[in-house]
Amino acid sequence: MDKKTVNKRIKFYDDLEVMEVDFSDLTFTVNKHVDEFYDEVDRLLASSDRQWYFLVNYTNCKIKPEIWNHFAARGKQSNTSHGLGSVRIGTTAEIRETIREYSRKENFRANLYESRDEAFSALNTMRRRRKTSGSEGIEPYLSVKNIHLSFGGIRAIGGVGFEVHQGDIFSIIGPNGAGKTSMINVISGFYRPSEGQIIFNGIDRTHYHPADVAKLGFARTFQNIALFKGMTTLDNIMTGRLIKMKSNFFLEALYFGPARRQEMENREYVEKIIDFLEIQSIRKTPVGRLPYGFQKRVELARALAMEPKVLLLDEPMAGMNLEEKEDMARFILDVSEEWGTTIMLIEHDMGVVMDLSTMVVVMDHGEKIAEGTPDDVRKDPVVIRAYLGEG
After folding, report:
1. Digit-coded pLDDT (tens) for 132-184
2. Which of 29, 333, 343, 363 is deepest in the core (most CB within 10 A)?
3. Sequence spans of domains, the chain
4. Quick check: 15 pLDDT over 50?
C-alpha cells in the first residue's frame, strides 16, 4: 500500500484535536499490509509533534483472524505513542466482538459507536475531561454539595461533595460502613440529607421524592437483589417501563388504541435490552429459579428499561464468580459507551474499579478522604492506609 493511498485515508482536524483513520473497504490479509498502513500513520503522527484523539472507521473493513494480534499491537503502539483516546465506527458484528475481546484483555475502552455524530460527541467529552482535569470551567452534570446525613445520633455522611460529568463511570469506594450506600440513597431520593444540595443538569433536586428523581432520569440497582421472584425475566424488566406509561386507565383496561401501541413500543424496547444483555434464553423463566449472576443481570435490565440518564449501581458484582464479573464489567462498559449513560458505581473489587472508572471518590467513616483518577487514588497514601490497610 503506497503512501498516497494511506494519506488519502488520514484526516487531521486541528481544532478538534482529532485524527480520522479510514479503514473502510480495505482488506488486511498479511502483516505486511498492516505495517505498510501503520508505518505511514506513525510517520504522520510523529511529524505533527503532538497527540491526537483517534476516530477509526471500519466500514466494510476485513481483517483476517490470523493477523489480528499484529493489527491490535500496531494500533496499541500508535495509541500509546501519540493518542489521547480512540472511538470506532462502522464495525461489523465480528470485528466489534474481536475489539471487545482485545479491550477486555488489554484493559482499554472499546468505544464503539453507530454514527460519526455519536463518535464526535464522545470525543468532545474525552477532550473536555482532559482539559478541565475534572471540572474547572465546565458545568458538572451532577453536583453533590456538602451532604450531611444522620440517623438519630449516628452520622452516616459528614459534608461530602463531588462532581460527576456526563458520560463518566464514577466510582465510590471505601471500607464497610464508609457511607457509600447511604450516599447512593441520597442521590436516588430514598434519603433526604439534613444539609447540602444535589444539582442535576442545572436543577436543584435535593428534596425530590424518589419517583420524581426517577422521572428526571435516575435508575438504580440494589446491593441485595430486589426483584419479583415469582415473575418472569420479561415481566420483571417490563416493570421498569411503568415510569414511561402515559395512556388512559380505561384504554389500558380495554387494551385499545394508544394503550395497545404503547404496550407494543414498551415490549419492543424491553426486547432490545434482553438482546443487549444476552438473556434471551431466560426471558420466560421466573427469576427466583435463576442463578445469582443472571438475577443481577435482570436487575440491571430493569434499571435500563427506565432509559436512565444516570445509572446508580450498588455493588453489581457482589457474590459473583470471575466469569460473571467479567460479563457484568463488559455490560457496564457497553452501557457507557454505546448508550452514553452516566454511571455511578459502588464496588469492592478494586480491579474492576480501576479498570472501569474515569473518576473515583474514596469515603471512610462518612467522610471523603480522596478523589481523582484511578491512578491518583491507587497511589494516595491516605487511601492505602484507610482502605487497603497498608502503610
Report:
1. 444 444 578 899 999 999 998 889 999 999 999 888 899 999 888 889 999 99
2. 363
3. 3-132, 142-388
4. yes
C-alpha cell at 70: 499484529
* Mean pLDDT for the chain overall: 84
pTM: 0.64
Q: Which CA distances in Å does 278 have to 226, 230, 294, 343, 375? A: 20, 21, 10, 20, 32
- How far, in Å, CA of 20 to CA of 157, rounded? 46
DSSP-H helix ranges across the chain: 3-8, 31-48, 68-82, 93-106, 116-132, 180-187, 210-216, 233-239, 249-254, 258-276, 292-304, 322-339, 350-356, 374-379, 381-383
- Spatial distance between the Cα atoms of 12 and 8, rounded to a whole number of angstroms: 11
Is the pLDDT score of 66 beyond 90?
Answer: yes
- List the beta bridge partners of residue 83: 52
Cell numbers found for residue 204 = 436543584
Question: Residue 169 forms beta bridges with which residues?
Answer: 343
- In the Cβ-directed half-sphere of 74, how many Cα atoms lie within 13 Å? 17
DSSP assigned state of 66: G
142-388 has which CATH code? 3.40.50.300
Q: Please state, in angstroms and rounded to a whole number, the distance separating the CA atoms of residues 347 and 381.
A: 20
Angle between helices 68-82 and 93-106 (to 10 degrees): 60
**How far apart (Å, rounded) are the C-alpha atoms in residues 89 and 112?**
6
| pLDDT per position as a tens digit, 284-316 | 999 899 888 899 999 999 999 998 999 999 988
Q: How many CB atoms lie within 10 A of CB 41?
A: 21
Nearest 5 degrees, angle CA 341-CA 343-CA 346?
Answer: 160
Amino acid sitting at position 348: H
